[in-house]
Amino acid sequence: MNLGFISSIIRNGLHSFKFVRTCMGILSDTSWAKLNHHQTPTNTPNTIYHEAAADNNNAWFMDLFVRKSNERAITFYKSMGYSVFRVVKDYYGDHATDATKYSEDAFDMRKSMKRDVKHEHVRDAGEDHEVDPEDVW
Predict the structure, then answer these.
(1) CA 87 to CA 125: how far, in whole Å?
(2) pTM
(3) One GO CC annotation, please (predicted)?
(4) Residues whose CB is less than 8 angstroms from the CB of residue 21 and which lie 6 or more positions away in sequence, other chains included
(5) Distance between CA atoms of 127 and 89, rounded to whole angstroms?
(6) SS3 of residue 69 by DSSP
(7) Contacts (Cβ under 8 Å, ≥6 apart) of 131
(8) Cβ–Cβ contacts within 10 Å for residue 32, how many?
């Protein structure tokens, strides 16, 4: 990311950031939720709403981040077709189940959208692929 891109986001607001990410074929649950939380129907799970938005914006895939300790959420998202793409080390600044730990890793879970017909943007054994938080954009 260059300085001009960052200053453009600052000048034009987060909507330009969503536009750029969408043009690149990426729409993350986090970025969409920050931009459109007020438009999300309260009776519809966010992921279903966001997946429809991702397909409408011709995105390649949908990403979401889940604490490694949140087995219930991981099971739920896997049942919806998501898989672990990678592990983001120390993604969370606290630990949900162990107060003696200062951070917790996250699973970056990913699902191919309609545009990714060949599933080129997902991987097997994502649990074995670790990255640092600064490597995730």
Answers:
(1) 10
(2) 0.63
(3) NatB complex
(4) 27, 28, 31
(5) 11
(6) coil
(7) 86, 87, 88, 89
(8) 25
pLDDT digits (tens, 9 = 90+) for 71-105: 999 998 999 899 999 999 999 988 777 777 788 99
Nearest to 133 by CA among 106, 95, 94: 106
Are the C-beta atoms of 133 and 87 separated by less than 8 Å? Answer: no
Q: Contact 56/36 with Cβ under 8 angstroms?
A: no
Alpha-carbon separation of residue 44 from 10, 30, 111 (angstroms) = 31, 16, 18
Longest alpha-carbon distance in the chain: 44
One-letter identity of residue 29: D
